[in-house]
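Subgroup meeting minutes
Present: P.N., E.W., G.H.
Scribe: E.W.

1. P.N. recapped why we're keeping a running log of single-chain structure predictions: easier to compare across weeks, and new members can see raw inputs and outputs side by side.
2. G.H. added today's entry (237 aa).
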Amino acid sequence: MILNISNLTVHLQGRCILYNVSLDIDRGEFVAVLGDNGAGKTTLLRSILGLTPKTSGIICLFGQQTSWQNRSALRQRIGYVPQVLPFDETMPVSVRDVIAIGRCAKAGLGRWLGTKDWELVEQAADAAGVRQFLNRPIGHLSGGERQKVQIARALCQQPELLLLDEFSSHLSSTAQQDCLQLLERLHLQNRFTILMVTHNVSAIPVNCRRAIILAGGQKQFDGALKEWQSVSKGNMP
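Output recorded in log:
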């Protein structure tokens, strides 16, 4: 079991964002978390990462219950791709440097990257199809290219669990499909576990078989994606 969540409740600024959410995810699964804006999808990911404190409940990663003592070590085993990569376009930061952030996260702050780390940076760039951009400033890339760089950064950590938060929602339809096909290929090749948050039913790779539906901070459905699509006819709750 990669992830086990039992009765997770999260309050933020006096509001209940998640209430009594439970779920289990096995190794190698590709799961989509669907729901409207405000359903609690991003809060779920941030709770898994230990970035948003839970009010109550239990989160277990890789067989260990998360706590302040082990959350940093557990987070090193998770790749995270947010919706937008925050950066200052005026800063001369190269694609190579951005991808290398993934190795820094894995190796730990304060440790110099070695030859093996830089080899993994190039391997991740190859896998994500951005090797030709390695020496280019990140600000010179298109939105779709930047998201591929983000995926490469996450791959560079050699993650056991990959979390994606609306990572393609702001892209053009062409760039979105390109990124989704990349994700399909990486999942088939690496068989790591993927938990992908989205509100767009059309932006789900074909090898994603399971859907978790959140509405109003509660889990409304957990099962085969095709079953939910059949019942809902593609409409969000």
